[in-house]
């Protein structure tokens, strides 16, 4: 088995004079995570580690793996998460996770939202701004401003919730200047926030215990969002914040509604094997899709509060068991023996 990843290292595509934003490396894997995944796979299979760099095609072609365990975020561009699966398909190699089209659609938040809207799956009203157009006054407040092509909460700071035109313009220009991409502006939903991990393939999906992010534990005055500050500054292993309730304390009715939205989203975006989705309730209490991550983060330490492993542990999986289960699911999809 070949295991793909993108190692934690600085990218030099911002220009020589510009410092990267503090969360520039948020999607990259640390050596600790890489080693934990390798050890989990090595309990049952021979593992060939491969970096997702410009030598990746040749290395994978030469190793001829039976299955590729893909966690590679890619190097650059809005289609970066599709690079490794595309190589696998060129070489006719089985791999874990969603196909190149789904990965690209989910990374481009506006395209994913357009599909969800077409199928009447609730998601916040949105606008795309790059700082050059005249659409500023169409925006409804409060709104939240994000990079269009990022994950791992990149570009989402405590001040990303904007309440007037002046704040909006500052955040949009910040996104464009720092991340070299348009800004996604969404109508801000102030209801309860949840994240849901899913394993399997239709019609046999395992929805892991729902996690609620409890914003009441954030510092006084903080916006009720899971921002960069909440994830990396305020919630630290040495000073943890009890932000996560797993399983969420919700009614059976709300649980069923959340799971229905998750399954419909999985279906229309054609997700495979595993995924994590973030949702928030609107003013009428309806679950809305915020983010769809078919290449979810899987930090190994419980104190790191990585949501998919946290939900999996609540469901009875060890960390190694989660990794191995993803392999089993992919093998079953391909008709392979795990």
Provide a descriptive summary of the structure in words.
With 338 residues, the chain is α+β, with helices and mostly antiparallel strands. The chain folds into 3 domains: 105 residues, 3-Layer(aba) Sandwich (Rossmann fold), CATH 3.40.50; 63 residues, Dna Ligase, domain 1 (2-Layer Sandwich); 142 residues, D-amino Acid Aminotransferase, Chain A, domain 1 (2-Layer Sandwich). Helices cover 33% and strands 18% of the residues. Strands 8, 9, 10, 11, 12 and 13 form a 6-stranded antiparallel sheet that branches. A 4-stranded antiparallel sheet has the order 4-7-5-6, covered by helices on one side. Strands 2-1-3 form a 3-stranded parallel sheet, sandwiched between helices. Strand 12 and strand 13 form a beta hairpin. Helix 1 packs across helix 10. The chain is globular, with a radius of gyration of 19 Å. The termini are close together. About 3% of the residues have low confidence.
């Amino acid at each position: 088995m070949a295991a793909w990843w993108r190692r934690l290292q600085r990218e030099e595509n911002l220009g020589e004079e510009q410092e990267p934003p503090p969360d520039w490396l948020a999607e990259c894997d640390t050596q600790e995570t890489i080693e934990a995944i390798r050890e989990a796979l090595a309990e049952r299979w021979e593992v060939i580690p491969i970096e997702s760099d410009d030598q990746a095609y040749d290395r994978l072609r030469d190793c001829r793996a039976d299955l590729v365990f893909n966690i590679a975020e890619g190097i650059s561009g809005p289609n970066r998460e599709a690079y490794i699966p595309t190589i696998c398909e060129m070489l006719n190699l089985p791999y874990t996770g969603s196909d190149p089209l789904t990965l690209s659609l989910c990374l481009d938040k506006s395209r994913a939202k357009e599909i969800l809207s077409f199928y009447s799956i609730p998601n916040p009203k949105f606008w795309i701004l790059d700082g050059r157009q005249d659409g500023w006054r169409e925006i409804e407040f409060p709104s939240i401003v994000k990079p269009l092509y990022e994950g791992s909460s990149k570009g989402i700071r405590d001040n990303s919730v904007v309440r007037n035109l002046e704040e909006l313009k500052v955040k949009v220009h910040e996104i464009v200047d720092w991340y070299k991409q348009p800004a996604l502006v969404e109508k801000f939903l102030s209801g309860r926030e949840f994240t849901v991990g899913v394993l399997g393939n239709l019609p046999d999906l395992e929805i892991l215990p729902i996690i609620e992010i409890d914003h009441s534990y954030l510092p006084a005055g903080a916006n009720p969002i899971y921002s960069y500050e909440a994830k990396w500054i305020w919630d630290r292993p040495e000073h943890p914040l009890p932000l996560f309730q797993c399983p969420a304390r919700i009614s059976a009715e709300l649980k069923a509604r959340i799971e229905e939205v998750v399954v419909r989203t999985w279906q229309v975006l054609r997700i495979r094997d595993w995924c994590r989705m973030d949702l928030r309730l609107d003013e009428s209490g309806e679950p809305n899709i915020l983010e769809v991550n078919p290449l979810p983060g899987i930090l190994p330490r419980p104190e790191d509060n990585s949501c998919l492993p946290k939900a999996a542990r609540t469901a009875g999986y060890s960390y190694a068991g989660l990794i191995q289960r993803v392999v089993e699911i992919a093998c079953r999809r391909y008709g392979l023996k795990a």
